[in-house]
UniProtKB/TrEMBL annotation:
Species assigned in the record: Crocosphaera chwakensis CCY0110
Residues of the full protein shown: 610 to 868 of 873
Name of the featured protein: Uncharacterized protein
EAL domain mapped to chain residues: 1-259
Top-level lineage group: Bacteria
């Protein structure tokens, strides 16, 4: 595992950076928040995609420290943006949680410490978790999610519809948001099966609304997809149509334009 060695070094030498992809209100067109996405520019390897290093960080346990850095940096950033862009007080920062972090026994305590040292309320931070992470041990997962809710956090189910889960549990998960997986959004324009995929997306949106959850559609790349999602009453969207993930400087430039 040379990658492991490089990851370890990279953590010490601060080679990681967060990028931020805007999440847009489809009702107002304004930025509702950002999803933090980690980037690694390694001195020895150059740019390495998270799809390649997150799984290794998971297997080796390095994700615990990397994840702690990601949460700390994301909370610091959202606090700074709140101070600099007071006309956008609703801005929320979403952070992906890995399975390994989710099973860390002191996750709630760790996040409480991070919130306190950033000086932000829990409701500025949203965690993205997947269905599969919760299905290993449903009762334990619900207890953990309740602990996170007690800190005031918001919770999203990421990639909804693609993981192992059961609808019979969905109403018991104390979550706020469903994220419609980008594979469904992309296929809404499938040459053969667009009708079917539009129906699937419509059903996920209705399911979310019936459970009092917000819905975010991921991976919106075309005007056509956006129009359908607006028609289906989806409240939030994210994707290359609006913006790629941005460096903090470029995210700030975008916020400054809105303010
Ligand atoms: O940003 P990009 O699309 O290249 O990310 C690829 C994958 O890596 C996605 O599945 C994404 O969820 C994951 N990923 C990106 N940033 C983070 C992060 O900060 N933490 C975790 N756990 N996963 C991340
Ligand atoms: O697993 P998760 O849903 O967190 O992954 C999010 C990933 O999707 C990020 O790595 C991000 O770079 C990527 N992404 C964001 N918007 C789009 C998009 O419009 N199209 C595609 N193909 N990927 C996107
Ligand atoms: Na995500
Ligand atoms: Mn996703």
């Amino acid at each position: 595992w040379h990658l492991e060695t490089d990851l370890r070094l990279g953590l010490q030498q601060k080679e990681f950076q967060l990028y931020y992809q805007p999440i847009i209100s489809l009702k107002t067109g304004r930025i509702a928040g950002f999803e933090a996405l980690v980037r690694w520019n390694s001195k020895t390897r150059g740019f390495v995609s998270p799809g390649a290093f997150i799984p290794v960080a998971e297997e080796t346990g390095l994700i615990v420290r990397l994840g702690e850095w990601i949460l700390t940096e994301a909370c610091r950033q959202i606090r700074e943006w709140h101070e600099r862009f007071p006309r956008n007080p609703a801005l929320i920062m979403s952070v992906n949680l890995s399975g390994r972090q989710f099973s860390e026994p002191n996750l709630v305590k760790q996040i409480k410490t991070i919130l306190d040292s950033a000086g932000i309320e829990g409701d500025r931070l949203k965690l993205e978790i997947t269905e599969s992470m919760m299905m290993n041990n449903v009762e334990e997962a619900i207890t953990l999610l309740n602990g996170l809710k007690e800190l005031g956090l918001r919770l999203s189910i990421d990639d909804f519809g693609t993981g192992y889960s059961s609808l019979s549990y969905l109403h018991r998960f104390p979550v706020d948001t469903l994220k419609v997986d980008k594979s469904f959004v992309e296929r809404m324009e499938d040459v053969k099966d667009s009708d079917k995929y539009i129906s699937i997306v419509q059903t996920i949106i209705s399911l979310g609304h019936n459970l009092n959850l917000d819905v975010i559609a991921e991976g919106i790349e075309t005007e056509g997809q956006m129009k359908v999602l607006e028609f289906l009453d989806c409240e939030y969207g994210q994707g290359y149509l609006f913006s790629r993930p941005l460096s903090s400087e470029n995210a700030e430039a975008l916020l400054a334009k809105e303010n």
